[in-house]
Every structure is written in C-alpha cells, then in structure tokens.
Design goal:
DUF2493 domain-containing protein; 4-stranded parallel beta sheet; 4 strands; 45% helix; alpha/beta; globular
Length: 112
C-alpha cells in the first residue's frame, strides 16, 4: 500500500460555490483528499433560511467550529479567494491554520 495522500481543507466564502466545486475536483484529481464546506450546492444563508435568527446564528457558529476541526485533520489549507476576496471567517481560518503549522495555499495571492 502506498503513502497516505495529502489532505487539503478548502476555505473561503461560500459565495464562490462554483470555485469550490472546481477546486475540489482539481485537488481530488491531483490525488489529494479534500475536506470542504458543508454544501457546494447552496450558500449557508440559503440552507439555513428556514431557521430563526438565533438558531441560524448558533448553526453558523457550530459550522465555523466544525471547519476548524477540518483544518486540524488537514495537512494543508487551500483558500478559495477569487479576486483576492477573503472575508472575516476565512481570515480566522487562515490565522488558525498558520497558528497550528498548516501550509496555506490560495487561488490568488493572499493579502492577509
């Protein structure tokens, strides 16, 4: 049996769903295990629209914490940042990844 494939965690704004899908496919074809966002089909705001404001806020907080655990499992992070866009949550994830010694790559140069 061969060496374990690298594990990459995709991070970025879910407004870039098409870019998440493209990166997921590209990384998978490159032989990496991909950890991504909960859904590549719809934004969190849309998926959680049926919840009350308080429930939605709590769910988004849980999803944010869950994503940090995905970073813990990963060997590296790939930031999905078309046009260089990096929002507050993604900045937090990048800082966390760097703090825990993970390699950080991005589609476009990072200004963080």
């Amino acid at each position: 049996m061969g060496e374990r494939p690298r594990v990459v965690c995709l991070c970025g704004s879910v407004r870039f769903l098409a870019e998440f899908d493209a990166a997921s496919l590209s990384e998978t074809l490159a032989g990496r295990i991909v950890l991504g966002v909960g859904s590549h089909r719809q934004r969190d705001e849309d998926a959680l629209a049926h919840l009350s404001s308080a429930e939605r806020e709590a769910a988004l907080e849980r999803l944010g914490e869950l994503h940090l655990r995905k970073i813990d499992l990963a060997d590296e992070v790939l930031v999905i940042n078309p046009g260089g866009y990096v929002g507050e949550s993604t900045r937090r994830e990048i800082a966390y990844a760097r703090q825990t010694g993970k390699a950080v790559r991005s589609l476009e140069p990072l200004m963080v």
